[in-house]
Design brief:
By secondary structure, the protein is an alpha/beta fold. About 20% of the residues lie in helices and about 20% in strands. A hairpin with a 3-residue loop joins strand 16 and strand 17.
């Protein structure tokens, strides 16, 4: 009897299941605050402002690591955050930058922005990386605000808040050759025959519950990666059975080895199996059905299977398909199979590559900034929203009167006061920007915030 199937936990061998999708919440580190200090030193009167800048917050970086095989850890630990920058100090000493948050994923992982649905990057090579969020800028110390007309600024800037993003990770295994077929067709046996991989093999359907990768060495100059895809059943394109969640893993392959079980008495026949599986591929992704296939008649070590193969070879040939007889158990026909696979790969340029290109480091676009707008609410008053103005308020020390004066002048220079007047604001009405709430006073930008 076959062992019971487990969809979530490890199997009896203790091997964790392949998890090929996960959603994580990431946040970059906040920048350190600037310092509002003045030089105090003997024999140096009126030393002036010397507050240093805050350190930059840590980025969130996702790296393709060949030692990571699954997204299971990220599914269990979905929250990641960069380190905050250190505050600036006196003597114009800048704070230390926050450490980056490095997330390691398997090679072949695609990163999607959940909010927009856009693909950020495809980490398809070892050590490829992507900065998905950049850390917040460190706040400027009061030395950065000194000018000819403002010689003793008594305020500094707070650190820029970190950014937030939801990312969907999708793993597509990187293999040159994908072995497909219905359950119990002998796919795992073939992988163990042509490579050093040792997949679980049993005389019952669905022995393989996760794709297995194996490296096939043909000669000293030719090798390729083969993937054993778990058995696909009819209706897999619609989510039936185990095949649907693994069909994505054959999308990157160059050639498919279509394995047909010629010794099975349970199904209606190899020819119908061939048509049904190709139909599932086309319904899932039309491009899959257009990939070149090496069609293999497996288990010809059984006499009935060998006879059936001889009978059906002309039928397949009439469709333009060269049926290749093979026994994964005895090894008969394996050399011919490898020659045909290598021929396809040489045409595509996937073998004989002597060196990999340099790892790529990508910086993902920042989350979309919201434009500045004003909403009028009976309860809240005039609410100003927008990425730029909200960040400006978040970096202002709202308990410091000098900082509030600087904020008002900056908002006036950005045209916010004109927008409020155009919206019909009057003296005494409430204005809300993020955490900042104040009564509006029309002083043409020359007065102080009340």
């Amino acid at each position: 009897m076959p062992p019971p199937l487990s969809a979530t936990g490890p199997d009896r061998s203790g091997v964790a299941p392949l998890v090929d999708e996960a959603i994580i919440e990431v946040r970059s580190g906040r920048g350190g605050n600037g310092a509002a200090t003045f030089r105090r030193e003997k024999f140096v009167p009126l030393g002036g402002p010397d507050g240093g800048n805050g350190g930059k917050g840590g980025d969130v970086v996702i790296v393709a690591d060949p030692r990571v095989r699954t997204l299971l850890d990220l599914q269990r630990h979905p929250h990641w955050r960069g380190q905050e920058g250190v505050n600036g100090q006196c003597g114009r000493k800048s704070g230390r930058n926050g450490a980056d948050c490095v997330i390691r994923v398997p090679v072949g992982t695609l990163l999607h922005d959940v909010g927009t649905g856009c693909l950020l990057v495809d980490l398809k090579q070892e050590r490829d990386s992507c900065v998905v969020l950049q850390g917040g800028r460190g706040g400027r110390g009061n030395a950065g605000f000194a000018s000819a007309t403002r010689r003793t600024p008594r305020f500094a800037e707070l650190g820029e808040p970190g950014q937030h993003r939801s990312i969907r990770l999708e793993l597509k295994l990187l293999a040159d050759v994908g072995i497909i077929g219905f359950p119990n067709a002998g796919k795992s046996t073939l992988v163990s025959r042509i490579s050093a991989a040792k997949p679980k093999i049993g005389d019952y359907p669905f022995t393989t519950l996760a794709p297995n990768l194996g490296a096939v060495v043909v000669d000293h100059a030719t090798s390729f990666i083969v993937a054993d895809i778990p058995g696909i059943i009819e209706g897999a394109h619609a989510g039936k059975g185990l095949g649907h969640q693994f069909l994505r893993h054959v999308e990157r392959t160059t050639v498919l080895v279509h394995l047909l079980d010629f010794a099975s008495s349970e199904r209606k026949g190899p020819l119908e199996d061939f048509d049904r599986l190709n139909r599932e591929l086309a319904l899932f992704n039309e491009a899959l059905s257009l990939k070149p296939q090496v069609v293999v008649a497996n288990k010809i070590d059984v006499s009935e299977a060998r006879e059936m193969c001889q009978e059906l070879q002309p039928v397949f040939a009439s469709r333009g398909v060269d049926l290749l007889p093979l026994s994964a158990v005895s090894g008969e026909g394996v050399e011919r199979l490898l020659r045909e696979v290598v021929a396809y790969l040489r045409t595509d340029g996937r073998v004989d590559a002597k060196a990999m290109s340099e790892p790529q480091r990508t910086i993902a676009p920042r989350p979309t900034e919201r434009p500045t707008k004003i909403d009028v609410s009976f309860d809240l008053g005039y609410v100003v929203t927008g990425s730029v103005v909200e960040k400006l308020v978040a970096m202002t020390d709202l308990e410091n009167p000098d900082a509030l004066n600087h904020l008002q002048r900056t908002l006036d220079g950005m045209g916010i006061m004109k927008m409020l007047k155009s919206a019909g604001i009057r003296d005494g009405d409430f204005v809300r920007i993020g955490n900042f709430v104040s009564n509006f006073v029309d002083e043409d930008g020359d007065g102080e915030t009340p």
